[in-house]
Amino acid sequence: MLIFKLPFDEKYFTTDKNSEEKSVIFFLFKGNENIDFKGKIKEISFEEILKTNFVLHENIEFDLNETHDEYIKKIEKTISFIKENHLKKLVIARKKTVPIQNLNLPETFKNLCEKYPSAFVYTFIKNNECWMGAFSELLGKFNKKTSEFETMSLAGTLPMDEKWTEKEIEEQKPVTDYIFEIVKKYSENVEKSETQDHFSGNIKHLRTDFKAKIDADNVDVLISELHPTPAVCGIPKDFCRKAISDLENFDRELYAGYTRIETDENIYCFVNLRCGKFYKNTAVLFAGGGITALSSPQKEWQETELKMQALEKSLIENG
């Protein structure tokens, strides 16, 4: 069972399971596997969602949480690695296991939709796995009628009340440059906006938008070339992917992968951030941050904690 909400849309959707058409596909970060939902996309009411029997399984393989000190040492090691290899940035994630009791999945999903109206919000249960997420980073949107393609460079994170520093500006710049260079291979005219603030709950990011006319046949090729962007990986892509695998020591699974949704009018691809894997007794939350030579390990820890709060503080348990 899958339910989701598109950004700035109050309606809920699912798939009707009546065809072999893969309307919604969740791609793993590694890109070698995916989870798909077949059938046409249809609207579903919250009353219908409440009638759905969501069965969560016990987590029998508890992950030992990475301690504050262990994370600090990992980021210090990452900063040394960045300096040694002259990298602009490298994105390092962590995961956190949170105990829960009797999670009310429909009400939690609804709560996320109301708290984050600009986000793509989803939850699903498939193959005995339950995932849920709420995020607004657009990897790509293609309008089938106008052939207009949109994407964004979203990077750099601070609490709402703090001012941007050189670290966040330097973190977002390679993402912007990377996206622009790829998109212009598929279009003669790429529109690029000014960099602006992008607000998401209790944090803000730096954001630059892009628009271009592209051929419909190139949409999936362009998306696969963009993913993973430096916002969730680093540059050069293959080198940084290998470094992430060595430094993180866990499988990102769906985290930092992307979700592809195809409707009659549009193709949407959202980067799968602010997400978690849910069980009867625990939630496994994921978050990461762009590390540069200017990073402060303690601030990076605080940033991941803030990002995880988007889900952690939205959970609704049955009384």
Concise description?
Helix content is 28%, strand content 34%. The chain contains seven helices and 17 strands.
How is this structure best described in words?
Helix 2 (68-84) crosses helix 7. The protein is α+β, with helices and mostly antiparallel strands. The longest helix is centred in the middle third of the chain and has 18 residues, at 166-183. The protein is globular. The chain has helices spanning 46-51, 68-84, 105-115, 166-183, 219-226, 237-248, 297-312; strands at 2-5, 12-15, 22-27, 34-38, 41-44, 90-99, 120-126, 129-135, 138-143, 148-159, 190-192, 196-200, 203-213, 258-262, 266-271, 275-278, 282-291. Strands 3, 4, 9, 10, 11, 12, 13, 14 and 15 form a nine-stranded antiparallel sheet that branches. Strands 1-7-8-16-17-6 form a six-stranded antiparallel sheet. The chain has a two-stranded antiparallel sheet with strand order 2-5.
Task: Note the main attributes of this structure.
alpha+beta, 319 residues, 17 strands, six-stranded antiparallel sheet, nine-stranded antiparallel sheet
**Gap between N and C termini:** 24 Å
Coarse shape = globular
- What is the arithmetic mean of pLDDT? 92
Radius of gyration: 19 Å
Taken as a percent bin, the fraction of beta residues is 25-35%
Largest β-sheet summary = 9 strands, antiparallel
State the order of secondary-structure elements, H for helix, E for strand.
EEEEEHHEHEEEEHEEEHHEEEEH
Structural class: alpha+beta
Number of helices: 7
The beta-strand count equals 17
Q: How much helix, percentage-wise, in residues?
A: 25-40%
Low-confidence stretches: none
